[in-house]
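[AMINO ACID CHAIN]
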Amino acid sequence: MTVRHGTLSALALAALLSGCAVVDWVMPKKGLPQETFTATLTGKTAWSTKVDSIKFPLNVVVVGDRLVVADSDGVLQALNPANGQSIWRGDIKGKPSAAVGSDGRFAAAVTEDNELVVLDAGKKVWTKVLTTPVKTAPLVAGERVFVLTVDRQVMAFDVLDGRKLWEMRRPGEPLTLNQSGVVSSYKDTLVVGQGPRLAGVDPLRGTLRWEAVVGSPRGTNEVERLADLVGPLGRSGEMLCARAFQLAVGCINAERGVQVWSRNNAGTVGVSAEGDLVLGADSVDRITAWKLSNGESAWSADQLQGRKLSAPLLTGKLAVFGDSEGFVHFLSRETGKTQLRLATDGSAVVAAPQAVAGLIVVVTAKGGVFGLKVD
């Protein structure tokens, strides 16, 4: 994610009137120097497959025994993560504006024409026209489809027939991001990002249960105070951890609905949390691991600066990032030192790596899907 500063200034008034986005996704530059290191792990590509190109940032959905991904032509696929083979595929008949959401059976995506399309095992079952653009993957859960629009309105639809069940409109920020936000769940609570706040919502009624601030915006104008929460959301136990755009990383106790800690950290992509750590990279790709309990720094690493890193993955003993040239970097969870680097197809890794079926799965801008095995 790159902020076009000239565009921000020129579009500030329009954004204030529309409540929509002023930030566009730009493919990063290539040709950056690589770190020199001695590998202490071995790895290989266990399988790879190809979908159409990916021209928008996305999150790969891992649901049980399958991966679900959308390409830029609107073809949705569920893949077997053990071998990359297709389980089902379907076409939403439009270019998606955001990633796909799925519960394994039903899949939901929104097109650039603001159509919410739901498929059942690859077959279209209903379509709804929305009045506001969407840049965040819908959440499919509990026989409902939850949609977060760019102005941070939340809507719930019945997954079977498309009936709108409720919508939640709250006083919004004057400026919001044209980037994937936060819509997730914790037990029986829907969790959404609204400005710099994380909100817990009753998924049956659309009423607010709790609200906590991740980071307090600073600055003297709307552009400087832009602090939307960006995905993905990190979760470890009852702690939900998020990034406020170019401002801070913070963790919320979802049982109590209160902020536990917040640390200034100017970044543009989400974080990962597992066990006792939270992991993220700032806007110059300096990596920090924070202690989950109190936000103290566990370690930091700067060997990947300037490589336009993807959102991270914490899994087992590894901290994993993709970069703008399709390399996947495996760092030690304990120290942040690089242990292994694997290549894909030379194009940017456009989603946070995912751990599934004993593999690390990454997706690239050229539409490559890779299952990487690390020993």
